[in-house]
Every structure is written in structure tokens, then in C-alpha cells.
Amino acid sequence: MKRSIVLLIVLLILCMLLISGCATQPVATSDDLSAYFHDRHFTASLDLPDTDDLFELPESAVHLLRREVISSKNYQQQSSVMMHEWLANYINASDGGFRYADNLTLSASDTFENREGNCLSLVVLTAALAKELGVKVEFQEVDIPPVWDRQGGFYLVNGHINLKLLPQNKGNVFNISTQSIQVDFLPERAMQGYQKRRVSRSTVVSMFYNNLAAEALVEGDYDRAYGLLKLALEQYELFLPALNTLAVLYRYKGLDSQAEALYQYILRVEPEDMNALNNYAIMLSAQDRLEEWADVHKVMELARIRNPYYYYGMAQQAYFDRDYQDALIWYKRAIAKADYRHEFYFGLSRTYWVTGDERRAEQSLKKALKLTTDEYNKRRYQSKLQAMRSH
After folding, report:
1. 3 state DSSP class of 10
2. What are the domain boundaries of the chain?
3. Per-residue pLDDT tens digits for 61-120
4. 18 vs 171: CA distance, rounded Å
5. Is residue 319's pLDDT more than 90?
6. Which of 21, 86, 120, 360 shows its CA 20 to 30 Å from the CA of 143?
């Protein structure tokens, strides 16, 4: 089952930065956030999406939606079917109604047209459809274990958000089914046992802009990233993931003093924010401020060893150094932390192969093939699996 995720970004040099996801709710602060913006270092980006446009659907989509409602057999034959139930079936997210794409944060219109996106895209689309049908929604942030990924020169760690469709009143009609329905790429049973927090629409919009900013940062478009982060913080001034993103952006622009001021601000708001502590420690180390660095290093180390890509990196290094037994140990540790990553199993497979354990090599490669959703990797793994079998 694919895991639904909201995009987050962590610097490759273990400068871990939570873009969005399960962040601790900040306490109030009297600081004026405008002091932490530095417009003169950036060129205004002219193609930033308007907040209202995120949840807007084209007329063609609205007409199609209404035709689907009218023509639905269930709706015709059983007028007591509640609209939130109909909409949940129409979205059909956990059963292939929309394709999950973890690095695509799209507006409602684009998600509807492309039939793909990440979990935040699905949330925005569903909220837009619900509005057209008069169905109320609740946005939920879910405390699933972190899902680690990597894109280009960045680590990605993914949080999770979904929403609930609420049953509506139908005048004097008594409805037996009054349960809210969760819309998610994951089936609801997979969410059982995880804490959920209701979040506001403005927080969702902040997450959306922050995701787009992270994507722009990965692509090197710093001006667009800055504009998007300002929009995110206009929606929710104390959204710590966006503040972390902004500090990392300042580092990339060479604005170290501005980044440090922002890290210190974040840590006044939330003294135990792991991402700000880790980023700040990286800066202190680069500046040879070792006593200050030591104060946060223990916290950094705990964060580092929880990152499965730490173990993966160690495994890769051991493999290329031809320390194959060590590589096996490190790959297995990475898998113990994140058994959903296809590249971990691929690394394990090729290490087994060079050590002569062909059976385990094939088993691990089959697992990698099963886990990957990327067509390129599927073809690559299938080709290697075929070569193994013909060996």
C-alpha cells in the first residue's frame, strides 16, 4: 500500500528541516515576524498562486461532478444515500481513484485534471469538491512515523495529512448512517492507533505554500521559494516548518546572520524544535563555535540515528569500499528503520549477490521491485531480476 505524504525537506549534509507534517504546536510570542523578512535580497516572483485559486475548480469539473451525482445509480435508486458517502466513493483514493505522486503538490484544479498528486493535493481537491456539494470537512494532521525519502541533493521526510467528510443534515429525513468518512490514500484501518489533530484551513494553505517553496528550493528557484514562504507565513505566522524552510533558504543565499536570527526565534517559540536545533548546530559547526555546537550536539545525534538514510549512507560507503559484510549490516539497519524504501532492498540485493548469496539477492530484489512505483526503477529491477534468473 502506498503511503500518503505531505512533502518535507532536509538538507543533504544532515541539515534536517521539517517542511510540514507533525510539528509541535507553537506557543505565542510577541516578536514582530516582519523583522525576519529580507526582501532586498530577493526579486519578487510574479507567478505565485493566489490563495483562493488553490481550492477553485474549473467550470468543466463542476459540471462533470454534478452530472456524476445525477447519473449515479445509487443516488437515483436510494435517495437516502448521504452526499458525503457518495463523494467518498467518487474520490476512491485508497483504491486507485487518484494516483499517488509524492513530490507533486497541486491545486484542486490540477489534481482533478491530472488525477494525481500527494496527500496534500488530495486534501485540497476533496475540500473543493465537498464545497460544491455542500459537504463539510475537517482537516487532520496524522502522527504517523516519519517517512524518509531523497530527491536530488536533498533528503525528504514526509508527514501526513488527510480529511474527514462530515454527514450533513437532510431536513426531516432520518439517516441511519451518520459517521464521518476519512478520505486518504491509505485505508482508514492503517491510521488506527495514530494520533490525529484537527487543523485549520489556513494551516493547510500554509502547508501547501511551504511544500511549493520546498520544491522551488530543490529546483534552485530561490526567489520563488521566498515569495511562497511569505505567503505561507501570512496564513499562519507561527508555522514552524515554514520558518525552518526560510532559515535554510537564507543559508543558501549566504545570509548566515539572518538565518541564525531566525533559528534563535524558532527556538524561543519552541525550544525543543528538532529541526531548528539541527540546522543551527550545522551553522555553529561551520563557524567553529564548538562550545555552542556541543550544547545541541546530543539532540542532533538522536535525530541522526533515527534517520534511516544515515544507515543507508553508511551501507553505500561500505559497499563501495568492498566491506560487504559491513554493508549488509548497515542495509539491514536502514530497512529496520524504513522497510518501505525500495533502494534499501536493492542495495541489500546487490551486496548479497557479490557475496555469493544468490537466493537472498533475488528475494531482496523482488522486494525492491514490489515497493517501487517509479517506472524507470521497475524496468531496471525487472531487467536485473531477469539477468539473475538466467545466470
Report:
1. strand
2. 1-24+35-257, 308-389
3. 899 888 888 877 555 555 556 888 888 888 875 566 677 776 789 999 999 888 888 889
4. 45
5. yes
6. 86
Q: What is the dihedral of CA 215, 216, 218, 219, to 10 degrees?
A: 120
> Directed axis angle between helix 290-306 and helix 274-286, to 10°?
130
Quickly tell me which residue has 549512507 as its cell: 313
One-character DSSP codes across 331-345: HHHHHHH-TT-HHHH
Which of the listed CATH numbers 1.25.40.10, 3.30.420.40, 1.10.10.60, 3.30.420.10 matches domain 308-389?
1.25.40.10
- How many other C-beta atoms lie within 10 A of the C-beta of residue 149? 21
Question: Is a pLDDT exceeding 90 seen at residue 384?
Answer: yes
In angstroms, how far is CA 7 from the centroid of its own chain?
3
The full length of the chain comes to: 391
pTM exceeding 0.85: no
* HEC sequence for 87-155: HHHHHCHHHCCCEECCCCCCCHHHHHHHCEECHHHHHHHHHHHHHHHCCCEEEEEECCCCEEEEECCEE
* Sole residue written with cell 489556513: 202
Q: Compute the C-alpha angle 108/144/96, nearest 5°.
A: 45
Residues 46-63 pLDDT 10s: 789 998 899 999 998 899
